[in-house]
Amino acid sequence: MIKQKRQYKSYPKEFKEEAVALVSEQGYTVAQAAEAVGVSTSLLYKWKEHIEQEQAGHKLVNSEREELLALRKEVKHLRMEKDILKKASAFFAKEMK
Prior knowledge:
73% of the residues lie in helices and 0% in strands.
């Protein structure tokens, strides 16, 4: 018997937002909204929590995450340059003595 890897269905962000909007804006219960869009209630609860945290500013959106990664990369590069310059200045200070 060969075990197959389980494939999970992925949903676009717009679909998730619309499903959560059924609960938050139109007064559906989570169970009703989950049944209406064809997903499990636990999945809809996760989407709802994620979207609420993004709106409250607790989670980074993709553009913020990308910017953060770019800034971290730049900081790493600048620190490396600074360390090289420190070592070079120490070397030349020894040479001048």
